[in-house]
């Protein structure tokens, strides 16, 4: 059976076994995914070569990243509060304050670099889309 890219597929083309194995693959690995789906190594290997299954995996990875991002956003407030308290506490040793300052500045630089990269990629994608529309 040949699969076309997921955009051209109906839900009928996605098997229950694929949906069972995909999240297990991401969490526990190949052997666990094969066992959970109840398929042969050969079938699973064939799935890994299809746009359909790879698209399912990509979607699941995206979901995991979004969930992690939400969790980190919640913890971020606590982390900033902790760092702020350490900086303001007169009993905090100077070496600890220096480390806290270093962490804050390093993360701010990383965040800025990430934001610039994200903006550049978005601009390149926009330009690419304009080129495609012009064809």
Describe the protein:
The protein has 135 residues and is mainly alpha-helical. The chain has two domains: 1-71, no CATH class; 72-134, no CATH class. The chain is 79% helix and 0% strand. The protein is built from five helices and no strands. The chain has helices at 16-28, 30-37, 41-47, 51-88, 94-134. The chain is flat, with a radius of gyration of 23 Å.
> How much helix, percentage-wise, in residues?
over 70%
Structural class: mainly alpha
- As a percent range, the share of strand residues is under 5%
User: How widely separated are the two ends?
Assistant: 33 Å
Query: Got a strand count?
Result: 0
Sketch the major β-sheet.
none
Number of helical elements: 5
**Radius of gyration, CA atoms, in whole angstroms:** 23 Å
Q: What is the typical, i.e. mean, pLDDT?
A: 85
Spans with pLDDT under 50 lasting ≥5 residues? 1-10
| Molecular shape | flat
What is the N-to-C succession of helices and strands?
HHHHH
Task: Give the total of domains.
Answer: 2
